[in-house]
Write a structure and sequence with these properties.
Length: 186
């Protein structure tokens, strides 16, 4: 299961370099925002440290699907060490060398592939919409490369590479809102 997930992520990352088109997003989602939140329990250590430790994190992801079908996203990360946020636009190069969050629409499902900025793993966010695209549910999973005991990613909070032994998401919430969730920032 991990191997197909990684292959799909690699293919999706390749596609991220091409501009997004309106055909990618269902018409019923254009002009709407999707807001997600979840918690993560991770067993991790800074690369080079001897001991793993348990870290509790909270995450949120806000998405706006434009009338042209482009996905604007902001992911927020928070732990006891602080918080950070990363913005991305589908079809554009991500900021500061971060891997692309790659949105992929299939019927009433939006899957976002997020490879770690390191090696051996990724986060996958799956959003299932109801028939009217007025409500949603979400599931977040972490995957490691087959045969690897850990994955390496970059912490946008502490600005160091971290090694994940495990990461488990829970408490996913999802809502759909009319309009642009980012418009109040302009």
């Amino acid at each position: 299961m991990i191997r197909p997930l990684m292959a799909a992520a690699a293919a999706a990352v390749t596609l991220a370099a091409a501009p997004a088109t309106a055909a990618e997003a269902p018409a019923a989602l254009r002009g709407k925002s999707v807001v997600l939140s979840w918690n993560e329990m991770r067993v991790q250590r800074n690369v080079g440290q001897a001991e793993f430790r348990t870290v509790q994190a909270s995450h949120s992801m806000s998405l706006y699907i434009s009338s042209a079908g482009r996905v604007f996203s902001r992911m927020t990360f928070a732990t006891r060490a602080g918080s950070a946020a990363r913005d991305q636009v589908s079809g554009s190069a991500p900021q500061s060398g971060a891997p692309a969050r790659v949105p992929s629409f299939n019927g009433r499902t939006l899957t976002i592939y997020q490879p770690y900025r390191g090696v051996g793993g990724m986060r996958r966010v799956t959003i299932d919409f109801d028939e009217s695209f007025g409500g949603c549910s979400a599931k977040v999973i972490h995957a490691k490369e087959e045969g690897k005991e850990s994955s390496i990613g970059f912490s946008p909070i502490t600005k160091v590479y971290i090694e994940f032994k495990s990461a488990t998401a829970s408490g996913e919430t999802c809502s759909v809102k009319a309009g642009n969730v980012f418009s109040s920032e302009q």
